[in-house]
Design brief:
Chain A: Keywords: Cell membrane, Membrane, Transmembrane, Transmembrane helix, Transport. The structure holds two protein chains of two kinds. By secondary structure, chain A is mainly alpha-helical. Chain A is built from 14 helices and two strands, in the order αββααααααααααααα. In chain A, strands 1-2 form a two-stranded antiparallel sheet. Helix content of chain B is 26%, strand content 31%. In chain B, α2 (92-102) crosses α3 (107-120) and α2 packs parallel to α4 (136-148). The chains are: A mainly alpha, B alpha+beta. The structure holds adenosine-5'-triphosphate and magnesium ion.
Chain lengths: 288, 334
């Protein structure tokens, strides 16, 4: 397959896809960079020319910037911890032979197929509504005062919704990893005198480390850009304004495209810092 | 100490009884081999002894104490698995030390025992490698190392050599035998290879469909197989089993004669046939002979390189005192 002719033919045939993808990525990226150096207020005079680094300075010095970064990282970190921990537990559970296994597995995976907007709306209206929500009924049943989740406990609520969305993904990947564990290893550990918890810690967890790494890497990339769940629930209020939400507000609500673009560039930088950081720490697991 | 006794042990998976009631005593220090065809329940029996499977009914005693309900770790047995079951993320040193760490042994003692095991098994140079960086034979030795550091009452081996190539298998066979001589610990060894069974065992247990067909030393089994199954299973190449009028001449339903107990003669032998395939091994030659009128292909071993070719006529004389006689149930007639 790897003759010179076949390789150049392959290149030729791949070219349209590569060019399309590059254009798809590069055009918005370059436009973002371009606008970030300009004063561009669509409703207040349009494009008003170069401003240098003004937008960048204004974006970071705004009082909303650091809280937004913190909120973003809090959501990412909490969701990662919850999904990985519960994902491992669920995967262990689903790995056991039981009645109706196929249906249970499909049910567990189901949340992943629900669109973020829809799932957030379902949570907001059916579970977290302080008057008619399921939680409110549950609280009242036990004689407690219903919590108005989306205002009083906005961050936990968002984290809960996003975790629910991503738990199936983590569970699925971890389940396939657990299924690939040689049962003789567990039996050997059992004979070697390792009780259940030690078997989990010494055999299963190391075996899962690679899968956990993959879950963390992929989820981080998507979680940094969480948007719909916030948009339809709190609208960025009550301390749930993430970086991506802040950018959205600057562009659409304040109608300042230049400032928003500068924020976009910061988001790219943040994502890359986090990615490099993660690769360094956990990426080592992927080597051997 | 390592005496293991099974009393009326049975095992069923759901409705399927894999092991009907079975009694067996394995004495301290004995090298016992379970041998039998695939699916006869050798692994199941070993796993029952190890405690990895629950027995359905019956009792297991280890060193005179009832171990039926004991968890595997409490039985004081060590097992070597067919797939080695090494822990891939741990170095060889940590693999071998694992059972000792689980037993909360002091670090100095652990180090001493690991060093000792490594020198017994020639693993000193590999202690800091991962299992993935070892050859099959070395992995096998690590698995054995992990078993011996615990100083168990008995070792259980489940087809430990079946993943190795032929030459290595012979080497490891010797090493395990020597280890047994040195440690004098009870060993139970599962294999479907009767050559392994013959060469290593003090005592062979021949199983078929979960039933013990015969227990005895390799030579006992070779000299006086209790029935036609054992007769056909032990010995290589297989014993010739002949039925019909030829067997009737000896007042038996079936007679058996081993290939090495039939002499090739120039002329006038008891039997006569044509040579089919001839396997020349140099030291001996195996002839597969057709058209003898005995109903079966007869296998004969001739010492040295006998120059008979495909299609030649061959004359054979079985040694009368080496003929085994079996009745209609396949049982030996004394
Ligand atoms: N977990 C199980 N569930 C149901 N049946 C089983 C189970 N384990 C083993 N068996 C059955 O029990 C019988 C004996 O199996 P076992 O593994 O002991 O055979 P074996 O003698 O070790 O064979 P081999 O030489 O191929 O390893 C087989 O018929 C097998 O199908
Ligand atoms: Mg087996």
């Amino acid at each position: 397959m790897a003759t010179k002719a076949s390789r150049s033919a392959a290149r030729l045939m791949m070219a349209p896809a590569v060019i399309l993808l590059l254009g798809w990525m590069l055009v918005p990226l370059i436009m973002t960079l371009w606008f970030s150096f300009r004063t561009y207020l669509p409703l207040r005079g349009g494009d008003q020319g170069w401003t240098g680094f003004d937008n960048y300075v204004r974006f970071v010095t705004s009082s909303a910037f650091w809280p937004a970064v913190l909120t973003t990282l809090t959501i990412v970190l909490s969701v990662l911890i919850i999904t990985v921990a519960l994902g491992v537990l669920l995967a262990l559970l689903l790995d056991k032979p039981m009645w109706g296994q196929g249906i249970v597995r499909i049910l567990v995976i189901a949340p992943f197929f629900v669109m973020p907007t829809v799932s957030a709306l379902v949570w907001k209206n059916m579970f977290m509504d302080p008057v008619n929500g399921l939680f409110a009924h549950l609280w009242r049943f036990f004689g407690a005062e219903p919590v108005s989740w989306l205002s009083d406990a906005a961050m936990p609520a968002i984290i809960m919704i996003v975790s629910w969305q991503w738990l199936p993904f983590a569970t699925l990947i971890l389940l396939t990893a657990i299924q690939s564990l040689d049962s003789e290893q567990l039996e050997a550990a059992e004979m070697d005198g390792a009780p259940t918890l030690k078997r989990f810690y010494h055999i299963i967890l190391p075996h899962l480390s690679r899968a956990i790494t993959i879950v963390i890497l992929i989820q981080t990339i998507f979680l940094l850009a969480v948007f719909a769940e916030i948009f339809v629930t709190t609208g960025g209020a009550f301390g749930t304004r993430t970086l991506s939400y802040l950018i959205f507000q600057r562009v659409l609500e304040s109608q300042n495209i230049g400032l928003g673009s500068a924020g976009g560039v910061y988001a790219i930088i943040l994502a890359n810092i986090v990615a490099i950081f993660l690769m360094r720490i956990v990426g080592k697991n992927l080597d051997n | 100490m390592g005496q293991i006794q099974l009393n009326q042990v049975t095992k069923s998976f759901g409705d399927v009884e894999v092991i009907p009631p079975l009694d067996l005593t394995i004495h301290d220090g004995e090298f016992t081999v379970f041998v039998g065809p695939s699916g006869c329940g050798k692994s199941t029996l070993l796993r029952l002894i190890a405690g990895l499977e629950d027995i359905t009914t019956g009792h297991i005693e280890i060193d005179g104490k009832d171990a039926t309900a004991l968890v595997p770790a409490k039985r004081g047995l060590a097992m070597v698995f067919q797939s080695y079951a090494l822990y891939p993320h741990m170095s060889v040193r940590k693999n071998i030390a694992f059972p000792l760490r689980m037993a909360k042994m002091p670090q100095s003692e652990i180090d001493a025992r690991v060093e000792n095991a490594a020198s017994v098994l020639n693993l000193k140079d590999y202690l800091d490698r991962r299992p993935g960086q070892l050859s099959g034979g070395q992995r096998q030795r690590v698995a054995i190392g992990r078993a011996i550091v615990r100083e168990p009452a008995a070792f259980l081996f489940d087809e430990p050599l079946s993943n190795l190539d032929a030459a290595l298998r012979v080497g490891m066979r010797m090493e395990i035998s020597e280890l047994h001589k040195k440690l004098e610990t009870t060993m139970i060894y599962v294999t479907h290879d009767q050559v392994e069974a013959m060469t290593m065992a003090d005592k062979i247990v021949v199983l078929q469909a979960g039933v013990i067909e015969q227990v005895g030393s390799p030579l006992e089994l070779y000299r006086s197989p209790r029935n036609t199954f054992v007769a056909g299973f032990i010995g290589s190449p297989k014993m010739n089993l002949i039925t019909g009028p030829e067997a009737a001449k000896h007042d038996a339903d079936t007679i058996g004669i081993r290939p090495e107990h039939i002499d090739v003669v120039e002329s006038g032998g008891t039997w006569e046939g044509t040579v089919g395939v001839a396997e020349h091994l140099g030291s001996d030659t195996f002839f597969h002979i057709h058209n003898t009128g005995l109903g079966e292909t007869i296998t004969v071993r001739a010492i040295g390189d006998v120059s008979l070719k495909h299609g030649d006529t061959i004359h054979l004389t079985p040694r009368a005192d080496e003929i085994h006689r079996f009745d209609a149930q396949g049982l030996r007639i004394a």
